[in-house]
Write a structure and sequence with these properties.
Structural class: mainly alpha
Number of strands: 0
Number of helices: 5
Oligomer: single chain
Largest sheet: none
CATH superfamily of one domain: Uncharacterised protein PF10982, DUF2789
Shape: globular
Protein name: DUF2789 domain-containing protein
Strand content: under 5%
Length: 109
Amino acid sequence: MPDGIGCADAKYFTERSCFKKSKPEFQHDLKSLFSQLGLSNTPEDIEQFISGHSLTEQQSIFEAGFWQPAQKQFLIESHDQDSDWCEAVNEFDVLLRARKKTPFIGRRF
């Protein structure tokens, strides 16, 4: 903000820039989700995990038997609270369902 101009004086400054501290930017993508779940998040390890795990059409990602209790709880809370992780969890769900239909060779995570 230019010197001498307060928030109340500058109509063109947004409320966010004047009154709220900005949060550090954090990626809520698939790679970060793997890290948050305590899993290796290299592209190769993500591909290997997805290749080795799948969901049935009727199965929820939260019901999968391969989660540790803390991982399952994180996924449930992310979905129920519509958190920043929700989109990454949904992408992960789709990939676990599509595993049988489409190979992941060459996909970049």
